């Protein structure tokens, strides 16, 4: 099997060539904008309302932990606003130079959410180390009560976002922010309880470092997954080589050239390929067979397949007394 990488651009075909075809031309997937926006907006109202209260309480209690939680909630609000904006952009129809629309806006939003989690984790690490070195005096009781209310608020906000389309990396990014904020409040509540019962003020810094570890894990996951899409990598779990071999093994297929598999946006894989069919084969039937294989077996509904007859002079037609020559190209 010979492997070619990159795209070949050719003008004109043999007289027996069949027209290329996009298996789902004009079909629009998009996100469920109306429903998702309502759930995200409900979470945004809860988060911003409690954040304002927490800032006031943090100043009164002299608690840097509560102020850090409030700062985290500020990034939560920003992530939800960013997600809402990205949803509107992604829902716009394709036009002009943007032939796929603005669906990748949600991937940029997910990337931003992942980066902010990592940056916030770095800042909280600095704050936690400072608290371990010189623990401040705080009102443990007020800190505990506020943290417990924060847990309830974040549980409700997280439930709201979980009702939205979490297969979208955009929504998942906002959800990860809320989930880590919930862990932060749980850590703050535990630290406050320890402070109230034992007077061990460094518990706040220890709990913060545990939360930071969870934030870094979530942030790296978002950056990795969104980065794969931005770099046009094959969808996770898809082996382009194995997929190309499977397509080349279908009846009447002689060669597969310029096979590319990538992801347009969350949960929307795409494929393009140049397929050579036996001179006496029905290229339209082959195309339909490949489209069915990709859609039903691999979840690839957006397939652009150019199908041509292989000229007999090039030796690519089926030899009844010998093996079929198949040449498969893989990229990404």
Structural commentary:
The structure is a single chain. The chain has 332 residues and is an alpha/beta fold. The protein folds into two domains: 21-27 and 234-331, 2-Layer Sandwich (Alpha-Beta Plaits), CATH 3.30.70; 33-230, Cation efflux protein transmembrane domain (Alpha-lytic protease prodomain-like), CATH 1.20.1510. 58% of the residues lie in helices and 11% in strands. The protein has eight helices and five strands; from the N terminus they run βαααααααββαββ. The protein has helices at residues 33-61, 64-91, 105-133, 140-162, 169-198, 203-230, 240-248, 283-298, and strands at 21-22, 253-265, 268-277, 302-309, 328-331. The protein has a five-stranded mixed sheet, with helices on one face. β3, α8 (283-298) and β4 (302-309) form a beta-alpha-beta unit. α2 packs antiparallel against α5 (169-198). The longest helix has 30 residues, at 169-198. The relative contact order is 0.15. Residues 1-17, 21-31 and 313-332 have low confidence and may be disordered.
Outline of the structure:
The protein has helices at residues 33-61, 64-91, 105-133, 140-162, 169-198, 203-230, 240-248, 283-298; strands at 21-22, 253-265, 268-277, 302-309, 328-331. The protein is of the alpha/beta class and 332 residues long. α1 (33-61) packs antiparallel against α2 and α4 packs antiparallel against α5.
């Amino acid at each position: 099997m010979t492997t070619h990488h990159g795209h070949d651009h050719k003008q004109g075909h043999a007289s027996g060539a069949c027209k290329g075809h996009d298996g789902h031309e004009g079909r629009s997937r998009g996100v469920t904008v109306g429903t998702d926006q309502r759930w995200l907006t409900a979470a945004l109202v809860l988060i911003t309302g409690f954040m304002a209260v927490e800032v006031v309480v943090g100043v009164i209690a002299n608690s840097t932990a509560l102020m850090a939680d409030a700062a985290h909630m500020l990034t939560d609000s920003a992530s939800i606003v960013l997600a809402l904006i990205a949803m509107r952009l992604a829902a716009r129809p394709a036009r002009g130079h943007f032939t796929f629309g603005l669906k990748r806006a949600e991937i940029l939003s997910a990337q931003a959410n992942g980066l902010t989690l990592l940056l916030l984790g770095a800042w909280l690490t600095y704050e936690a180390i400072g608290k371990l070195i010189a623990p401040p005096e705080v009102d443990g009781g007020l800190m505990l009560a506020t943290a417990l209310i924060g847990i309830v608020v974040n549980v409700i906000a997280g439930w709201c976002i979980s009702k939205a389309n979490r297969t979208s990396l955009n929504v998942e990014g906002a959800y990860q922010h809320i989930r880590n904020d919930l862990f932060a409040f749980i850590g703050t509540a535990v630290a406050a309880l320890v402070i109230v019962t034992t007077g061990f003020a460094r518990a706040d810094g220890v709990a913060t470092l545990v939360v930071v570890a969870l934030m870094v894990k979530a942030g790296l996951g978002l950056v990795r997954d969104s980065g794969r899409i931005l770099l046009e990598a094959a969808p996770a779990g898809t082996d382009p080589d194995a997929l190309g071999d499977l397509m080349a093994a279908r009846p009447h297929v002689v060669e597969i050239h310029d096979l590319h598999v990538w992801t347009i946006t969350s949960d929307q894989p795409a494929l393009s390929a140049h397929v050579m069919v036996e001179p006496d084969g029905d290229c339209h039937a082959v195309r339909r067979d490949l489209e069915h294989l990709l859609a039903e077996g691999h979840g690839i509904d957006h397939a652009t397949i150019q199908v041509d007859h292989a000229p007999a002079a090039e030796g690519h037609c089926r030899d009844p007394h010998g093996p079929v020559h198949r040449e498969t190209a893989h990229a990404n």
